[in-house]
Amino acid sequence: MKWQEVQQIFPNQFVKFEVLHSEETDHQEIIDDVAVIGPISDEEATRELLNSRDKTLVYHTSKDQVVVKVRKNIGLRRSL
Prior knowledge:
Layout: H1 3-9, E1 14-25, E2 28-40, H2 42-50, E3 56-60, E4 66-69
Antiparallel strand pairs: 1-2, 1-3, 2-4
């Protein structure tokens, strides 16, 4: 399902979904095709996002696009 369809079905609320297709540019991943799991209440959104794994996300439908910042693995430095 395209993000614009999700916005029409679930206006102005958080939605939990699985990413089906995305494109990566520079340091961003633009998600354009999703499988909706269901709407999430405002109170539960943060907890659901923190518990998300793999390709599952929680995002608000007021946003025009689903854009995720991509962070590369950063090695930890420590001095001995």
